[in-house]
Amino acid sequence: MDFMVNFEPAKIPAPINCREKILLTGSCFTEHIGNALKESKFSILQNPNGILFDPVSVCRSLISYADNKRYNGSDLFQLNEVWNSWQHHSRFSHIDKHAALRNMNDSQEYAHEFLKQADWIIITLGSSFYYLLTREAIQAGELDDSTTLASGKPGVANCHRAPAQWFQKYLLTIPEIVESLDLCMHRLLQFNSKLKIIFTVSPVRHLRDGVVENNRSKARLIEAVHHMVHKFDRLYYFPAYELVIDVLRDYRFYDIDLAHPNYMATDFVLQKFVDSCLDDETKLLMEEMKKISLARKHRAFQPNTEAHRQFLRSSAARAKLLQDKYPFLDLAEELEYFNSAQAINE
Fold first, then answer.
1. Which of these, 47, 11, 44, lies nearest to 273 by C-alpha position?
2. What are phi and psi for residue 135, nearest 5 degrees?
3. Which residue(s) pair with 163 in the sheet?
4. What gap in Å lies between CA 325 and CA 319, rounded to an integer?
5. What span, in angstroms and rounded, lies between the C-alpha atoms of 248 and 5?
6. What is the dihedral of CA 111, 21, 222, 66, to 10 degrees?
7. Res 142 pLDDT > 60
8. How big is the CA angle at 27 (ends 26 and 28), to the nearest 5 degrees?
9. Contacts of 146 (CB under 8 A, 6+ apart)
């Protein structure tokens, strides 16, 4: 008797290869995938605007990379002595206005150049809720015209803990989400015709929106994404949301806040992602990189023993062999560690 519904995500027809460049953007769940790829030395760029949740903000940021948008002083606002951008996560905020602009524009320029060469974009959408600027914010002089929806409604990617009266919470309609995604896909494929795109919907539950509201929000994202996948070639869907909600289906797979999937859940989803979206060569490389990463993190109780020195020598040899086989990998840090630790202990 089966006690759970299980399913295997469909395999992508031409899966990701370890030599390809990947841009990842979207909600915090994006970073679980991105960090795993980064540890395996993939060539990735992760969230150039910081974490973004709603599809309008994600699409706007991607188009800005293709256009190599430059931010200026009028794009920033000051709140509690800190300069912020409505289109960026707070990690770009700075007490010095020029430093904030420099960080944003450096990230824009790097994203523009990376996107030229990218083979894949992985987009994780978190919520259909969008925050519109109210008259109070506009009167405060905090309005940037570039934040408007097609309907003319001005909105933001990040609220930066600004006064609540500056915002109106707005649930994007499916046509509005599709419109944003459609414009974005056309612009991206025009900019880089070889791009392939994987969509996921974050399994993180936005309980502060309310249980019913969270489900409405996720449903709109799923419907809009499937519309796009059926419309465009080389657009794919990876069911991260379904794997957590419909396969795991248990609060033991959530963190203490009951909203974020815990380590077991994210590791489960990551393994399904590897099986579904990566080719065989890349899967083998990730296994080898995992061994080297574990060896790099190992701390010996008795570092002056011959056994530990042999461990360091074999780890260095393994890393060197992998570096020679895959010259695009950057294993300089690992090789330096194994060799220097070995020299110290001899």
1. 11
2. -60, -35
3. none
4. 10
5. 9
6. 30
7. no
8. 130
9. 60, 75, 87
Residue 32 token pair: 């679980």
CA distances from 83 to 48, 116, 172, 321, 325 (A): 18, 30, 28, 48, 47
User: pLDDT grade, residue 141 (50/70/90)?
Assistant: low
Tokens, residue 294 = 């574990």
Give 154's strand partners.
148
Query: In Å, how far are 62, 131, 175, 177 from 144, measured between CA atoms?
Result: 18, 14, 24, 21
**Average pLDDT along the chain:** 90
pLDDT at 309: 85
Which residue in this structure is represented by tokens 């449903």? 219
Residue found by looking up tokens 């248990």 in the block: 250
Burial of 251 (0-12, 13-18, 19+ CB in 10 A): exposed
Q: Give the DSSP letter of residue 262.
A: -
Asked if 26 and 202 count as a contact pair (C-beta separation under 8 A), the reply is yes
Q: Kindly provide the b/e burial profile for residues 220-243, where b requires at least 16 CB atoms within 10 angstroms of the residue's own CB.
A: bbbebbebbbeeeebbbbbbbbbb
On whether the CB atoms of residues 309 and 345 are closer than 8 A, the answer is yes
